[in-house]
Structure formats: C-alpha cells, structure tokens
Amino acid sequence: MEDRVLVFDTTLRDGEQSPGVRLSLDEKLEIAHQLEAIGVDIIEAGFPISSPGDFESVNCLAREIRGVTICGLTRARDRDIEVAAEALQPAERRRIHTGLGVSQNHLEYKLKMTPDQALETGVAAVRKARQYTDDVEYFMEDSGRADLDYVYRVVEAVIRAGATTINVPDTTGYTYPNEYYHLIHTIREHVPNSDQAVFSCHCHNDLGMATANTLAGVMAGARQVEVTVNGIGERAGNTALEEVVMALHIREDKFGVKSRIDTTRLLETSRLVSRLTGMLVQRNKAVVGANAYAHSSGIHQDGVLKERSTYEIIDPRLVGAERSEIVLTARSGRHGLKFRLRELGFEFTDD
Fold this sequence. Notes:
The protein is α/β, with parallel strands linked by helices. The strands form two sheets. Strands 1-2-3-4-5-6-7-8 form an eight-stranded parallel beta barrel, surrounded by eight helices. The chain has a two-stranded parallel ribbon with strand order 9-10. Strand 5, helix 6 and strand 6 form a beta-alpha-beta unit. Helix 1 runs parallel beside helix 2 and helix 2 packs parallel to helix 3. The longest helix has 15 residues. It is elongated and about 80 Å long.
C-alpha cells in the first residue's frame, strides 16, 4: 500500500467558526457532498452538543454522506460523547473527536485542573467514546506551548485507553515549522506505543505558518492533516486544504506521500465555499486565488509563453483552472502584447 496522508476536513466545524459565517443545513450538505466528491477522507461535521442545529447537521451528514468518515467533536465529558454518538449513529463510518488542553496555560486558566486530573479525565473520555466506536481521535489542545514530558504521558495513556488518532494542535498558531517538526518527531520517538496511532496536524495561521507547520508535521511522520477549504476558521484561519494537497502533489519528491484528493476540482470547491460562506478569496491566494496563474511582468510573460514551467510550478488545469492569464500592464513587453492581440483576433507583422 502506498504511503498516504489522510485529509481531515473541518470546514463545517472549525471553518464555520469564522466570524460572520453561518451555514444552513442545505448549504452544509452541499459542501459535504463536494468534499466527498473530491476525495476527502474524514469530514468533521460539527460539535453536536453545542446546539440543536449542530446536532441536526451532524446527524444529517451521517445519514446522507457515504464513503467518508463522519466525525463529531466533543469535550471530554460523558454527556458530550453520548450526544455525539447519537448524532453519528446513522453514519457508515463514524469518529468521535474528544480531548483536552495540555499546556500549562490551558490547564491553569481554562480547565482549572492539575495535569494529573486532566490526564485522568482524558483517558476516561476515550474509554467512554470507545463504547460507541472503535475510531476515536484525541486532541491535545495547545500542544505547541505544552511541556513535552507531559505530552508524552498523555499520548501514551490515551492510546492505551483506545485512541486511534492523536491530534497535535498548534491551537494559537504559535510554533515555527522546525518546532512543530520536533514536536511530532519527538512524540513518535519517545512514546512506546506511538506506532498504534495515526498522528494528525491541526495548525492555525496566526503567524502565517499553518501550511508550513502542517507540512513539517508530515515530514516528521504525521499521516493526517486537518484543513479547511480556503483556510477559513477562527481568527486568522486554519491550514488551507488546497495548499497542503498541492504541496504534497507538486513536491512528492520531497514528501514521498500522496493524498487521494482530486486536485482538478480544487478551484470549484474553493468557489463553492467562498460563495456559501460569503468569505472572498484574496486575489493573490496560493493555488486558488484569481491571480495565482496571471502574469503581468514582461519578463515573466515572455518566459511563460516560451515554456510555462519557467514561472509556473502548477499547471492551472491541475487545479481546475482553464489556463494561465496574460494581463497587459505598463510592464508588459512585445511578446505579451503580440500574444494578447492574437487572442483578440489581430495579426500584426513584427514591424
């Protein structure tokens, strides 16, 4: 079997937490069908106990979507897990995603627990979730600022309790790629039973490094990436699905792993999510931005017209765009002008 990275899409859960975004049930279902069509492995459908609407959307996706694992988020509380299990009951494949913070900051100020209390609570939550499914993911919120020795203890304990995926979130977008690589690498190296679970990257973009950190995690051995379409999400957003997928595809020589995403449908997926959420994609956004395959400089235009790969590492057709675009500006040269005139139906001599 080829070495594969699982794509865990949380557009409908973490992505919908973007300020100003509110998706109806029909809109969530439309996005979910699109995610299913492009080859996403896991869809995090919502946080069932948080509201009747979230419960309904998770339950609806569990009934309607096939061939994809449907995931529900919970806190490490019995009632949360029971409600998630009820919502997920119709799913062909179901996952419960539970966990707690592991940084001193979260333990002290948010959870008001000692490290040992939090560890025991987390282990109990995993055991509870295992009563409903054998696919349990455990998140260690704020791992990027946590004490490593404590993280090792938590990972070992929750895997022993039955967690099959370990989510290592950089919740605040605090870490740098070399730090995140070290975090994933050392967990896998120091935890005796780490080979019994898949490690997952969940990175936020507060310092603009979500994609870089996620790819560093893959380099360190993580085999699940948690992403959103267009990188939407709380604050500065989450890791962008399209960026990670195309980085793994274009630089397979570097990563040596594949996803099963149909890249030719990335642009249509981006536009669908943008339309339904009302969140515009910046023109210079990597992979799916309007300017991603546009050239205005004469030097660039001349090069790309002679051989596309001089200035483009991604063939636009690979993501579902029709072609590169030559934009006439004050910096355009004769080659670009001649090309554009020919597109408009004019043929002039060189003179």
